[in-house]
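hiii, so i know i said id send this last week but things got crazy w the move. better late than never?? heres the sequnce for the chain we talked about at the cafe, plus the structure i predicted for it. fair warning i was half asleep when i ran it
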Amino acid sequence: MHEQLLHDIGLSQNEAKIYEALLHAGEASVQTISLKAKVHRRNVYDSVQKLLEKGLASEVFIRGEKNYRAIHPQRLLEMIKEKESRIKQALPQMQGIYEQLEEKEEAYIYRGIEGFKNYLHLILQQKETVYFIGAKALWLDSRLKHYLPHFDKERKKLGIKFMHLFDYEVKEQKSEIMKLVGKPYKFMPKQYSSPTCVDIFGDYVVTFIGVKPGQLPEEPIQFVMKSRRLADGYRTFFQCMWDNCEDE
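okay and structure toks below
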């Protein structure tokens, strides 16, 4: 039931299956674990040992027989915090190495929901106002509901402001987005609606295609262009549009 989640946070498939089996069994021998987890007995030994090393299982001796028991699931959160702490310690040095590289203009593509999350991370990284042209309320896509609260909390903490030029349809179909993102925002004239939108922030211009109000495509694609000169030009375009669009 939780195997995929356990796998996503760093456990191997066998470790996830065995931990899940131990949660349900309470205490179990290698033989019982093998049956309940549907993992070959010879692989159970290695995976149980790794769970012991990670602090997710413990040994129990009953009448001379070695059994195993799952550690409280709270340990999973502790594992994540430990990894986060290690990353924070290493991050300044890693950032220094990254930032020593010569800044260059480049273009690339992000794909999928994880790619969309990478785009959101760029916004937090740049720490500058974001200008949205033809905005479609894409934050409302159901696949982002678990990630967006974290993103929005971080961007507010960093003081990142939004300026939205929404497509006209958003006002009619997804008006709840206005409360979520807050002012300032305006709406483009109805005759200029399109299935594209452009976001400008820091050194980046990000273009989306095939988008609808409140909904990303099944396989989202973002065209990412990194160039301060290009972004400055798009900010000028945005200001021209903003000045010629009526207030709400």
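btw Residues 106-243 form a domain with the Endonuclease; Chain A fold (CATH 3.30.870.10). thought thatd interest u
miss u guys!!
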